[in-house]
Amino acid sequence: MTAFDDLMSFQRETEALAQVAGRLSWDQETMMPRGAAAQREEEVAALESVLHARRGDPRLGDWLASVDDAALDEANRAQLRLIRRSYERTVKVPAALAAAIARTVSRAQVTWIEAREAGDFRGFAPLLDEVLRLRREQAAALAGEDGDLYDALLDDYEPGAKGADLQAMFDRLRPRLVALRAEVLGRPSPLALGVDFHEDGQMRLARIVAESFGYDLRRGRIDKAVHPFSSGQGHDVRITTRTVPADPFNCLYSTIHETGHAGYEQNIDAAYHLTPVGGGVSMGVHESQSRIYENQLGRSRAYCGWLYERMRDEFGDFGIPDPESFYATVNRLKNGYIRTEADEVQYNLHVLLRFDLERALISGDLAVADLETAWNDRFLADFGYAVDTPANGVLQDVHWSAGLFGYFPTYTLGNVYAGCLHAALRRAVPDLDSQLAVGRTGPALAWLRERLQRFGGLRTPRATIEHAAGMPVSEEPLLDYLDAKFAGIYGLKAA
Q1: Annotated binding site
Q2: Is residue 236 scored above 70 in pLDDT?
Q3: How many domains does the chain have?
Q4: pTM score over 0.70
Q5: Which residues are recorded as binding Zn(2+) (predicted)?
């Protein structure tokens, strides 16, 4: 066997073990009894120690040095690039630190659930402070003497991205988003839902919408979790959702969102499974898939017309008289605390709040002890009303308890990517609306699969989007789409 063959054989085992680790995390969020939390900490830490040792194994360095990149095809050069990147990052982080992070975030996620239920940030803060300390220590190891700590963590989720560049993009987004929100909220609001929707019906409909967006339940499953998420790759990709009796859209659109993540993973070329190229290339690109499924397709006038009939089949007359009114209700702007429930106009404002706060935490400009006050002050300034409970504020997201500092900006970056992809999709599939109106997402999904999903990690994140969309990444298509859509719904001007 050549050095490259040895390298890939070793890497496949590492990727398989990483999927086992992911399954442990899935179980912790869905099925694990709470009394198992302490034992799970040890299980997760033990497996992370094994993975860390494999990702930093000295043989990787020898194999990487022995392989002639020029003799490889595009896919195998990409494999080498991703393995080398992982190896170089891994060897900078001590094994004991990697295990400590895994153990601590496992405990923190369970504690976060309890704190969220109790509305007790003060009780959770010491453990969050420990998570932050460990992640800052990891960032320092990765960044070296002259590197930026936040950029070092951001690179885990969006390789090559820089906090300063994202800040500049977000500064361009904010004024138009704020102006559109002000104009829309000054208009009469569409009808709101006024009845409860039983949980069993929501879950039945969740399966219907997931399958309408191509989710293969032979290789996946839908469960409930406190915070919806997608997990896995290849032939085992699972999603979760949640139900709220008064708000079935929470369940349905969380399901469509997670189906976008799952669809990306299920549609990667099977030849790449259990290799570095066999997963989504970045969280920003992943979010581009979940957001285009959820918003540009799932909240479109055409798809809403089809979904309206499915809602009536399941729940009978629920107070919305016709498909056009239902479309307006689905896309209704309203005040709210929860990022995952936010409308398309205000969603990114929720993300920008988190981005700024976590950069301040990592830089040391903000202490965990002051985080709740900082969150509440910023929320009041941005949205004009006060946070009523920590569960609706600083405790609403799982990310910081899981140590995922640097993850939040990929949500807005994913929206920007989705805007570019949607503009290109509309040009490529001119009869898209007539297809969506009868529940046929196939033409749109086929375009996404062929232009983006099947390639997995073959290209860098930005190159992935630019190859698929045929244009440079820009926030303009997203902003133009939002202006046109909400002008039409609220009668702001000629749509």
Answers
A1: 257, 261, 287
A2: yes
A3: 2
A4: yes
A5: 257, 261, 287
